[in-house]
Amino acid sequence: MTTDSEWEMIGALAGRAGLSISRFLVERALESRDPVPEAEAPSGLPPEVRRRTALATLVLARVEERRMADAGAKAFWDDVVAREGAWLDAELDLGDP
């Protein structure tokens, strides 16, 4: 679980980057595991913070997926995942693995 102090640190880093916290987390999660150092400070978060953040994101997604299925909205969930996956592929030019 991410601590309050970690969220504060993430918020401060996001603010310095001029990004929302969610955008900051997405960008950092998609970076390589060995980020290039920035001019004044190392880039990114420590590996244990990145792992906890990724885990929290995955858990929240799984809970929301289950909630949607329980509400009979599985088709809606699948549509959202497909649309956002297509957007992410186009945005980051990831293509198929």
What does this 3D model show about the protein?
It is a single chain. The protein has four helices and no strands. The chain is mainly α. It has one domain (4-92).
Total number of β-strand segments? Answer: 0
| Number of distinct helices | 4
Shape: globular
Termini distance?
Answer: 30 Å
**pLDDT < 50 runs, ≥5 residues:** none
What share of residues is helical?
Answer: 55-70%
Q: Mean of residue pLDDT?
A: 82
Please compute the radius of gyration using only Cα atoms.
16 Å
The fraction of residues in strands falls at under 5%
- Main sheet? none
Class of secondary structure makeup? mainly alpha
- Please trace the helix and strand order, writing H or E for each element: HHHH
How many domains? The number is: 1
Topology:
Blueprint: H1 4-17, H2 21-30, H3 47-70, H4 74-92
Keyword list:
97 residues, 4 helices, mainly alpha
Brief digest:
The protein has helices spanning 4-17, 21-30, 47-70, 74-92. It has 97 residues and is mostly helical.
